[in-house]
Amino acid sequence: MNYEEVKNSNNIGYAKLDTDRKSRTGFPEVIFCEGKPDEYLLNIYKTLLEKDGRVFGTRASEEQYELIKAEIPEVQYDKVSRILKVMSTNSSGGSENDVNDKPQKNTFIAVCSGGTADIPVAEEAAQTAEYFGTKVERIYDVGVSGIHRILSQQEKLREASCVIAVAGMEGALASVVGGLVSNPVIAVPTSVGYGASFGGMSALLTMINSCANGITVVNIDNGYGAGYVATQIDRLARK
Amino acid sequence: MNYEEVKNSNNIGYAKLDTDRKSRTGFPEVIFCEGKPDEYLLNIYKTLLEKDGRVFGTRASEEQYELIKAEIPEVQYDKVSRILKVMSTNSSGGSENDVNDKPQKNTFIAVCSGGTADIPVAEEAAQTAEYFGTKVERIYDVGVSGIHRILSQQEKLREASCVIAVAGMEGALASVVGGLVSNPVIAVPTSVGYGASFGGMSALLTMINSCANGITVVNIDNGYGAGYVATQIDRLARK
Amino acid sequence: MNYEEVKNSNNIGYAKLDTDRKSRTGFPEVIFCEGKPDEYLLNIYKTLLEKDGRVFGTRASEEQYELIKAEIPEVQYDKVSRILKVMSTNSSGGSENDVNDKPQKNTFIAVCSGGTADIPVAEEAAQTAEYFGTKVERIYDVGVSGIHRILSQQEKLREASCVIAVAGMEGALASVVGGLVSNPVIAVPTSVGYGASFGGMSALLTMINSCANGITVVNIDNGYGAGYVATQIDRLARK
Amino acid sequence: MNYEEVKNSNNIGYAKLDTDRKSRTGFPEVIFCEGKPDEYLLNIYKTLLEKDGRVFGTRASEEQYELIKAEIPEVQYDKVSRILKVMSTNSSGGSENDVNDKPQKNTFIAVCSGGTADIPVAEEAAQTAEYFGTKVERIYDVGVSGIHRILSQQEKLREASCVIAVAGMEGALASVVGGLVSNPVIAVPTSVGYGASFGGMSALLTMINSCANGITVVNIDNGYGAGYVATQIDRLARK
Amino acid sequence: MNYEEVKNSNNIGYAKLDTDRKSRTGFPEVIFCEGKPDEYLLNIYKTLLEKDGRVFGTRASEEQYELIKAEIPEVQYDKVSRILKVMSTNSSGGSENDVNDKPQKNTFIAVCSGGTADIPVAEEAAQTAEYFGTKVERIYDVGVSGIHRILSQQEKLREASCVIAVAGMEGALASVVGGLVSNPVIAVPTSVGYGASFGGMSALLTMINSCANGITVVNIDNGYGAGYVATQIDRLARK
Amino acid sequence: MNYEEVKNSNNIGYAKLDTDRKSRTGFPEVIFCEGKPDEYLLNIYKTLLEKDGRVFGTRASEEQYELIKAEIPEVQYDKVSRILKVMSTNSSGGSENDVNDKPQKNTFIAVCSGGTADIPVAEEAAQTAEYFGTKVERIYDVGVSGIHRILSQQEKLREASCVIAVAGMEGALASVVGGLVSNPVIAVPTSVGYGASFGGMSALLTMINSCANGITVVNIDNGYGAGYVATQIDRLARK
Amino acid sequence: MNYEEVKNSNNIGYAKLDTDRKSRTGFPEVIFCEGKPDEYLLNIYKTLLEKDGRVFGTRASEEQYELIKAEIPEVQYDKVSRILKVMSTNSSGGSENDVNDKPQKNTFIAVCSGGTADIPVAEEAAQTAEYFGTKVERIYDVGVSGIHRILSQQEKLREASCVIAVAGMEGALASVVGGLVSNPVIAVPTSVGYGASFGGMSALLTMINSCANGITVVNIDNGYGAGYVATQIDRLARK
Amino acid sequence: MNYEEVKNSNNIGYAKLDTDRKSRTGFPEVIFCEGKPDEYLLNIYKTLLEKDGRVFGTRASEEQYELIKAEIPEVQYDKVSRILKVMSTNSSGGSENDVNDKPQKNTFIAVCSGGTADIPVAEEAAQTAEYFGTKVERIYDVGVSGIHRILSQQEKLREASCVIAVAGMEGALASVVGGLVSNPVIAVPTSVGYGASFGGMSALLTMINSCANGITVVNIDNGYGAGYVATQIDRLARK
What is the pLDDT of residue A78? Predict the structure, then answer.
């Protein structure tokens, strides 16, 4: 294709939307809003809403919220998690019951965060999982410098099919959680910190080098990715 | 305690063996052999064998094999994975049936590797999972530079409850696998490579930055860790 | 020279324009616009237009477009690739036929990109090559997490004299393409990504460590450089 | 497959040799010897020799030479480039004439090196290209600290279809060569150096950031990769 | 001085021993043995023994122990901490009572370590502090992946005038300890780990970025430095 | 908890204020203002002021000062240190006499800084210590490039129970101070510098590698942390 | 001193101006303007002007120029080098004749730059040297990708007592210059570049690893430092 | 040239010795021995000795000493600096009087080192300068942690035409020396250190970021390079 053909190849710009994705993987398409041009983003929201009856986007700015709202008034924006979503009237409130019809076990995941500054990433994880139909228990502000806080939540952590541990600065939360539970722990380093935290790289290294068993790691601030994997695990546990 | 008390505090040196671990977490203790002093390693093997009827160690050298064999002749050593294990006569051949007695689903995990040089780490992962009672399907030598190799295995990959993707050099295998399956992928970067591979750091970064969904990452060469998490996930799927 | 002499040494500021360059290398001068002071940029555009009948600049901002347009109304700006060019009325529409007069083979290069966010760099490469008289086939949005997309384009990739593979995040596209074709692959890491992508360094390392043969790498976001080398190769193939 | 099946799956260990590779890509298989276990390496050499009538390996040690020689006495070892090859009696002395039968142009590539310590990598590049049937002109010991050395070779550099520039320490050679020629330059950073050369990373960065046009880069010490790409380019020029 | 004068300038080679150091700072000279030439090390031990009646060296190898023992038979070597010391008959067994004659408080420091592999560094810290006359309580094998271990020692930790927290891998121990005590915590990262632990740099970054208050950090494996500072603090508390 | 419960769980947003902290550790809560949302920050200031009669925050912006001042007019802001505090009328002017009632020694700490650009961090350290009831002697602008400046202050440095050495650029100040005193030195690298200073990482490495004894290090620009530890040490010396 | 005393200790804020510096070192004080608070900068300019009859500042912004100009109308600002200076009426136009009265040799230094974007740093170096009384020959736009440009200036380079080589991107200029001259070369890496240039670190590494003799390196963009050292060398040559 | 021609092109292997170098630059050729193959090194020594009457090599091992000694018995080896030299009977004992015949000033350079472990690099610098005919004053063991040591040598430092400051660990020596003298300081970081010293990179960064004027830096452990530049400067001062 030449440049003109590329630009005209579909109604939302250059990208081919993967609208069959859900039937193939059980997961609907999610939009990474940050840095997307206005016209392009608007097209995606309108196209997906028409086709799926709902749209879910991460890393949206308030400006992007205003942009979408002007054409899709029912769009909802959460300032903390920066999630920008449209839920169709006939959609089941986030439940993914349509994915599999058999009676399922009553499972949930837990999302922990070290400090209040880590909550935006934790909420991106939690709300992503909820959008995919997973039940979520939030356990926030349980950083290891006050170890009693996480210890008082041990029972709930142990019941979860999977724990997401979100922490910046030194990122030690994952190791402590990993020692308390027998199900998988997904560690999410955040860019919270200053000085030698290197935008979250320090927390990432802490988590990758964890002495605890059962810990795997996603990219810095990647709450979405953690919510996705946690849902994959929870679905296996649920069936 | 002073230094003398520390040295005398138990019969295997300074460390407290966590012999109740299995009843608490469902996973027996595993020994990281590399760098352990001879006398200390021998003590651990003898103590655990007496108590549990079997011992499993990773990263063992041939010298350590000779050391243990002199006192525990039935010890087995696999040169490729560097696993050094003793299986008790009445143990069920690696099956972890004792963990939960209910009839279970017939699940398995898949372990993929990019090149032949990655096989030692892949085998550490595979044999660790098998030791914990997980069924393993090996899919080796399927690096992305010959993409048909991994594609011809798609069906098996999709059936697995979890896929471990082991790759060094540029580590692209995980992203391709992640796009093929709907269950979790655990990426294991290896130190295979030269020049700007930085002992596996380059592959680790590739995997952490993967554009595919459902990928989490463990430390470089950490086959054991991947086998552990894969077992956690497979157990959830199995129940 | 002292400072005054430097400032007065030519009519466009400090730099000596290399206006004989094309006869020497077969490539006309290209301007890297980013960061150039207004007055200086304007002088370059006017001087080159007068001498060569056309001007081609990369990394131009919209402000720079307005600046040049005020004095050279026929200037064209492409927001995606950030290319700012003036094509003379009697120039052959980008064709470099003047470079060699013999009948030539009908060759082309392919430009692939991983995601939509990589398209600006891909277009910088494609349009640079086109400016140098090379035919370009665009194959966009073929990231490895949906491997069927690149596979469905295999035939075209194999016919190209050279493939430019543009990808950010983990940059695995180059390795997959390298395994599909027998002509050279030029890999362009992009700064697309977040967290541990380190502004494209992670993708650069992936590409430099590629397990596939036939891959060479240019600097992060250096679409221009890739378009230049691809043209060098295509010219060798064309003769 | 389980572990036993993997081990028995072919006669040379775990790997599937890609013996159809040459008909598919025009390039025969090349063996990376470093770190391969003895038994495995021997099997590869014997299998390939039987099938193709010749074998070519890089990064071989003297011990590996002795190993192969004991069973394949006609094997040849070059201490400088560490290449270990067997040329069949009826093979055409490295010429790849069989690849395409048409009369071809009389082209060649040039291999330059900065210092004498870079010659091993330069020879890996040169001999790899020669094995693939490419004519090679060596231009060694032309580092930029004595700029007249490279300048006196300008004519030959300009005639080459492609120039490989091999340099360690600060790696400036590629930029100077890039300014002298109009065909592509493949830059190979070497691990030659000390202190802040970081095993060649410093030279790699120099080359990636080159201000000259037409330069692409391969991994540190990757003479093989450069010889491969140079052959791809030379073949395009030759036809 | 010219080279000859330098070599002859004192009886132990080039260095001026700082034998007045103790009266000035309250701390006797300590020898860093690693890498010191044999003749030079022997001279230092003999010179200091004659002058001070005792010598204390860190990072000594077994070969260095044999070397010194041949001339100073009463020398003692501890394989774990690699400390090589000679205690004079009339020295007060490590007590630094001579430093200040007033009756002092009954204080002590605590030395914690994460895993058994961290014990060599922990012992270097502990024995250094003891040599300087400080009482030491050892609390080993209390890594955060089994959080109950460190929690069961809370009372002792809180009584200490200062806590040294020694840990490799992800180094999270310091943050947990920092949250439990109100006196200063000196964090010592160790080079224990593999993969992305970067020889202890990962643990160092964890500790520097700790979210807990009251934590300061010394260089990787610098048990000596931690023992020194802990003694400085304990002396202030003791007076 | 679900998201609604989290948001409603206390009157200041998501975080649980640790208002018992002072009785437990002897240190009142300190607020890290940077990046805190307006509404949240205001709530914290009002809640703490009501409960403790005073509030102390670090890294506050002028905008945050205006925000708080609108509701708490007596709030004080220091532009240099960016400290934003409210002192209650009946509070003892920063003295922490309530911590321990016994007559205490007359101790103080010293805060040194290399250049004038380091003063903001030095003042964060000094004012933090003063808030915790510690006497502080400031010794500024004593960088090592004019060594007489620090030498002229030796006496005062030696009397201090603890010295905080604040320096950016190459960070050599800590090593020189460490050689002059016998009490602990807390080194604070600052982000002052340019080029290869890497936002303070270069100074941090200098300080971690110091050849002087008695030096420990906190994170880049962490004046608060240094003031905290210095107070811990001074309290031990004071009793 | 307490905080109040610090603030009141002199008339220009916290810093002690080193106004005796020139008689001690032969170099007058130079002001690094970047980041200095307005009031403080103005005080320094006024104080120095009164005492020395001239002031010289580097890294000044246009805003700082306006600030100073409002009170010192004769201040001069050069936008390229960002130098902000006041020359007294009776000062000798930058000549440092007063430093030593003996008749001197007629020496000069050369300042080379790779590209036009490096000129600001080159001018900082050149004008700094001129302020210190050194004659400067500018040789700009002589990057190594067009090697004839620097070669045509060989004679002048060889006559200089010292050459400053300023280059960004790959920084190869210093190595080529180092091979052409027999006097010292001071290499100044600049932050010019993008992608893997890491804000000049790549050029710094190139220069530090140079294979040419006689090259020393200063910090990234440190034109001032290079001009200072070049003057030290030129003064030695001049006497 | 092909490979055979390269090997036969001169009598010492591949390299062209630059035997006219001295008449061109005033500096004779110096051999970097480390890593040179035996036969090649021997050839260089014999060829240079025959032509110049003397040879000077750096980084030589004891094995290389034995190798050369077997054929050139008068060769001298200094274990500390690892310099391996042959001085002809009629050579002027290292003096470079032949370089310029005019009566010269009585100048010298100073070489300082931080600790005894830095002496090998310091001696490489000192003996290189002496070989080039420069007078050298050695000032060793003057690290900044005992600041009185360097201060007691101020007078000599100030008289030197140039000071070489050699230091590992934190490398602060250069900054202190830079503040004491008015002539240039050449800083040589050494690889002495452990932990976060990164093989000297930490000291290199310290020196590059120095707050003192007049400091330039060479590569880690590059004593030869420092001795070379110091001689260039001293020659300028001497004339």
Answer: 95
Mean pLDDT of H190-209: 94
Which has more confidence, H232 or H20?
H232
Using the Cβ of A19 and the Cβ atoms of chain C, whether some distance falls under 8 Å is answered with no
Contact flag for E and C (3+ C-beta pairs < 8 Å): no
C17: which DSSP letter?
P
ipTM of the complex: 0.90
- Tracing tokens 């050679």 back to the chain, one arrives at D173
Number of alpha carbons in the 13 Å side-chain half-sphere of residue D172: 36
Give me the residues of A, 52-111, that contact E with CB < 8 A: none
Residue pairs between chains B and D whose CB atoms are closer than 8 Å = 46
Q: What distance in Å separates residue A219's CA from the closest CA in chain B?
A: 5
Of B79-83, D226-230, G18-22, H94-98, the one with minimum mean pLDDT is H94-98
State whether residue D216 sits within 8 Å of chain C by CB. yes
- Specify the residue for token string 């500790």: E207
Q: Is the pTM of this model over 0.90?
A: yes
Question: pLDDT at position G19, please?
Answer: 59
Contact check, Cβ <8 Å, G170/D203: no
Alpha carbon distance E28, E56 (integer Å): 9
Distance from CA of E218 to the nearest CA of H (A): 10
CB neighbour burial string for F93-131, b if at least 16 within 10 angstroms, e if fewer: ebebeebeeeeeeebbbbbbbbbbbbbbbbbbbbbbbbb
Most confident stretch, A92-101, E121-130, H42-51: E121-130
Q: How confident is the model at residue A96 (pLDDT cuts 50, 70, 90)?
A: very low
Q: Which residue of C has its CA nearest to A21?
A: C146
Question: How far is residue A197's CA from residue A193's CA, in Å, rounded to a whole number?
Answer: 6
Q: Are H141 and E15 in contact (CB under 8 A)?
A: yes
Measured in angstroms, the CA of H87 and the nearest CA of chain D are apart by: 25
E strands, H114-203, are 136-139, 162-167, 185-189
Does D170 contact chain H (CB < 8 Å)?
no
Element (H, E) at H7: helix H3-8
Flag whether residue F47 sits within 8 Å of chain A, measured between CB atoms. no
| Percent of residues, chain A, with pLDDT higher than 70 | 87
CB contact under 8 A, C138 and A200: no
- Strand-pairing partners, residue C166, are C113, C188
Q: Which of residues 182-201 of B touch C (CB under 8 A)?
A: 193, 195-198
pLDDT band at residue F1, thresholds of 50, 70 and 90?
Answer: confident
Considering only CB atoms, which chain B residues are within 8 Å of E152?
A: none
| A165/A181 Cα distance (integer angstroms) | 12
pLDDT digit string, tens, across residues E30-48: 999 998 889 889 999 999 9
pLDDT digits (tens, 9 = 90+) for G152-210: 999 999 999 999 999 999 899 999 999 999 999 999 999 999 999 999 999 999 999 99
Q: Among the listed ranges C14-18, D22-26, F232-236, which one has the minimum average pLDDT value?
A: C14-18
CB contact under 8 A, F216 and E213: no
Q: What is the pLDDT of residues C152-179, one digit of tens each?
A: 999 999 999 999 999 999 899 999 999 9
Chain G: partners with 3+ C-beta pairs within 8 Å: C, D, F, H
Residue A5: closest C-alpha in chain C = C138
C-chain residue closest to B195, CA distance: C209
CA-closest candidate to residue G39, choices G18, G15, G20, G22: G15
Rounded to an integer, what distance in angstroms lies between the CA atom of residue D135 and that of residue D108?
Answer: 5
Instruction: Let me know: does G131 contact G149? Beta carbons within 8 Å.
Output: no
* Of the candidates G217, G231, G227, the residue with the CA atom closest to the CA atom of residue G174: G217
Contacts of F171 in chain H (CB under 8 A): 170, 172, 206, 209
Under an 8 A CB cutoff, do B119 and D14 touch? yes
